UniProtKB/TrEMBL annotation:
Residues 256-289 are annotated as: Disordered. Residues 270-281 have a biased composition (Gly residues). The chain crosses the membrane at residues 205-225. The keyword Lipoprotein does not apply. InterPro entries: TPM_dom. Keywords: Membrane, Transmembrane, Transmembrane helix. Residues 41-161 form the TPM domain. It comes from the Bacteria. This is TPM domain-containing protein.
């Protein structure tokens, strides 16, 4: 096939992929804009009465307003086949919660009744003030109430303790953790620098367009390079086997080497923070109840 054929195919691929990427970015942005950032209690497992849910909603709004952080509680009866950590990360990526901006300061408590999993995560300012160690302490405090079915008490404890920690800058300790304060005052909120990435770069249409063009260009280049055909000539091409003095060949087995390698263990910890698929880093603490 000619180079022109492959170039046409590459151009067709480019024309198809760019609109799809732009459409994906538009849908993600639209979904984030529809999300109600003033709603904080998502009792999908129906563990709370209407009065309890309303009281927690009021408490989360009041405490969150003072700390400029969205305190969110999610209860689940199964996490759509996802690990609970992945569920929380996708929730943050897709819905873009935050106190006063998309993908802003957010602390999330999620429990899955199906797997008896609990996961706490902190994003942006909450990643620093609710670091892994502090989230571990909160989880240890509320787990007994969760195990006893005292969900309202556990969620109230999460909100109040998170509020207290958000007003106290983390300090260095023996484990080598650093002071994560960014010039904050004693109230932990007035002087915090939130950064310049109000919206993640991966969701910007221009970044998606450039990425699509780069990927398409690489694909077209590879296809055009391969269109010249392969070199199939080798030493056997010019050998006359009827006149060759090589009448036979054989292989001689001399020795064998056996290498043993220990099978990796699956007992690795999956707790702590990480980075979402959308590129947002976060702290975290995971356990069972």
């Amino acid at each position: 096939m000619s180079r022109n054929y492959f170039r046409k195919q590459g151009l067709l691929f480019l024309l198809l992929i760019v609109p799809l990427v732009l459409l994906f970015g538009f849908l993600q942005t639209a979904k984030a804009q529809e999300f109600d950032r003033t709603h904080y209690i998502y009792d999908r497992a129906q563990l709370l009465t209407e009065a309890e849910a309303a009281e927690l909603q009021t408490l989360a709004a009041e405490l969150g307003g003072q700390r400029e952080t969205a305190f969110i509680i999610i209860t689940l009866n199964g996490s759509d086949g996802k690990d609970i950590v992945q569920y929380v990360e996708d929730f943050y990526d897709e819905n873009a919660p935050g106190f006063d901006q998309p993908h802003g300061n957010t602390a999330i408590l999620a429990i899955d009744m199906g797997e008896r999993d609990i996961y706490l995560a902190g994003f942006k300012k909450a990643e620093q003030y609710l670091n892994d160690e502090r989230l571990d302490q909160i989880r240890d405090q509320i787990t007994p109430d969760l195990s006893d079915g005292q969900y309202f008490q556990a969620f109230s404890q999460f909100l109040n303790t998170s509020y207290e920690y958000m007003g106290q800058e983390p300090t260095s300790d023996s484990s080598g953790s650093k002071d994560y304060g960014y010039g904050g005052g004693s109230d932990g909120q007035n002087h915090y620098v939130t950064g310049t990435d109000e919206e993640n770069i991966f969701f910007q249409w221009w970044f998606q367009l450039i990425s699509s063009l780069v990927v398409a260009g690489i694909v077209v280049t590879i296809m055009a390079y391969r269109s010249g055909g392969r070199v199939t000539v080798n030493a056997q091409t010019y050998m006359d086997h009827d006149k060759s003095r090589v009448i036979g060949k054989h292989d001689t087995f001399t020795h064998q080497t056996v290498t043993r390698q220990r099978k990796p263990s699956n007992n690795t910890s999956s707790g702590g923070g990480g980075i979402t698929g959308g590129g947002h880093s976060h702290s975290g603490s995971r356990g069972k109840f």
